[in-house]
Amino acid sequence: MINVTKTYLPPIEEYISCLHKIWESGWVTNHGAMVQKLETELAEFLDVRHVQFVSNGTIALQIAIKALELKGEIITTPFSYVATVGTILWENCEPVFTDIEKKTFCIDADKIESVITKRTSAILATHVYGYPCDVDKIGGIAKKHNLKVIYDGAHAFGVKINNQSIFNFGDISTVSFHATKLFHTIEGGAVITQSGDLNKKISLFKSFGHIGEEYLSTGINGKNSEFHAAMGLCNLPYVASIIKKRKELSERYDTILSGVNLKFPEKPKNILYNFAYYPVIFEDENTLMRIKDILAENKIFTRRYFFPSLNKLPYLKNYQRCETAEDIASRVLCLPLYPQLTLEEADMIGRLIKHSM
Ligand SMILES: *Cc1c(COP(=O)(O)O)cnc(C)c1O
Questions:
Q1: Does domain 239-356 have CATH number 3.30.470.20?
Q2: Rounded CA separation 22/40 (Å)
Q3: Ligand 1 close to Cβ of residue 152 (< 6 A)
């Protein structure tokens, strides 16, 4: 069986050696040595100023919204994982959808200004599949209209644009370290900012809003444990080789699928990409379903990611049309991509698709 993804696990002895350290210290959570070390190593690896390790990528988004004190309307993308819009609703804000670009599937920055109202407080956009949003244009719009910007960087670990970490754009970037993501801590995530003041607020909010016996604000429990941090510390040295393997596999798919009636997102220029996903766009939804079923019959499991387009979620109050996102969501399929996949398996999957079209 080949799944769309498979969790990378480091050599078990390396994790066990971290477990021994945890047992020696007796300290299992609440900003312990492993969490502190992971935050420091991540800041260095990603080339960012402040990293707060939290329990998952969704709590990271919630804390970001709280830290920026967002109210009213938040402009967001319909093409993301449900957690992006889910968080906006959970924090009692209203999502206003802007359609996506046809090339990167990220929010179309040219369409943002027309939906700004007096009630707009922020833009929350996703770097889809690790492709950066148009951060310059979005930054300019935010400045002009005095809006905050949060980037959901769940897919964008290690991505750079003009040699600069993608997480250094916007007021806050969030990332997920879930077991299905490129770099993981089993469950986990981070809130990243360049602002020292925001970082303090985020740190306070993730630990119930108090420091020792000083109760400073409301907060939530967004902390993560020593066991999760240890998994991150063990995985981090392997990230470069994980990305390298993903690149090789993606290039193998590229070769086999060239000439097949499929479309692909276009990688923006000047980026260092992480090969987080391998999405293909079929001619129409029927073809997608047919190929998906053929692959499943061969025990190859793909994922309609993202589907549905978030503007069509059944529990939203009103329907806001997003033509491109709805179209792409109906035709996109992510193929298996993970470092343990072999080039032969990628060949076989590619050929199966090619011969079934
Ligand atoms: C995975 C993901 C999240 C949620 O992260 P969790 O760590 O699973 O809570 C949010 N946004 C996007 C785009 C994701 O892919």
A1: no
A2: 18
A3: yes
Whether pLDDT at 37 is above 90 = yes
d(CA 154, CA 232): 15
Please tell me if the domain spanning 12-237 has the same topology as the one spanning 239-356: no
Q: How confident is the model at residue 170 (pLDDT cuts 50, 70, 90)?
A: very high
Probe target for ligand 1 pocket from 53, 176, 304, 307, with the most ligand atoms within 8 Å of CB? 176
If you average pLDDT over residues 24-46, what whole number do you get? 97
Atom of ligand 1 nearest to the CA of 58: 9
Let me know: does 335 contact 260? Beta carbons within 8 Å: no
Q: Which CATH architecture has domain 12-237?
A: 3-Layer(aba) Sandwich (3.40)
* 148 band by pLDDT with thresholds 50, 70 and 90: very high
Are residues 82 and 304 in contact, defined by beta-carbon separation less than 8 angstroms? no
Does ligand 1 lie within 6 Å of residue 311's CB atom? no
The structural domains of the chain, with segments of one domain joined by +, span 12-237, 239-356
Residue nearest atom 7 in ligand 1 by C-alpha distance:
57
